[in-house]
Write a structure and sequence with these properties.
Length: 181
């Protein structure tokens, strides 16, 4: 693949399938002349259960000669910073940590109006892409991420389970409250 394209080619892997064999994997990736590697600190068998083994990043950084990125349990700007400062990684990939939290990339807390407007913009784009019924059904899973840290998060999550339209969502969004308000 690398010979057929004129852009950097990287590989994202896990520690292994059932066993942690990441050193062997890193060796093969480097021998194939990849430009970078991203390692998720769990095995495939673990999926997303348990805690990502960030300690393995220290071992990987000792043998990796190409840019090396970390993935797994990165839920804040501080997590990414800690990985780069203390675990020998060159960059961090934020995946599930950004669901319902696009502010993770700017390291700031949004105000209540920004949260509401972002939710409505997000679901609006989904409606354009999928149609209202399908978009609302899919957005219910994403909405949970937006409610983390809200004063009435539990109540909002319960209510969103019963929404079927954009209008229903709008009514629930208007009930959002920040902690301390």
């Amino acid at each position: 693949l690398k010979k057929t394209v004129n852009i950097p080619v990287g590989v994202k892997v896990r520690l292994g399938f059932e066993e942690d064999i990441v050193e062997k994997i890193v060796e093969v990736v480097q021998e194939s002349n990849a430009d970078y590697i991203i390692v998720h600190a769990r095995t495939q068998k673990q999926m997303y259960s348990g805690k990502a083994n960030w300690e393995r990043f220290k071992d990987i950084s000792k043998i990796c000669k190409i840019p090396f990125g970390a993935s797994g349990d990165i839920y804040s700007y501080d997590d990414a910073k800690r990985l780069m400062e203390n675990y020998g990684v060159d960059f961090a990939i934020i995946a599930r940590g950004s669901i319902g939290n696009p502010w993770i990339f700017s390291n700031r807390k949004p105000n209540i109006e920004e949260i509401k407007n972002t939710i409505l913009k997000h679901v609006g784009m989904m409606i354009t892409e999928y149609g209202e019924e399908k978009a609302i059904r899919r957005f219910k899973k994403i909405y949970i991420g937006y409610t983390k840290g809200l004063k009435n998060a539990r109540e909002l999550r319960q209510k969103v389970a019963y929404i079927n339209s954009y209008e229903d969502l709008l009514n629930v969004v208007n009930e959002i409250e920040l902690q301390g308000e």
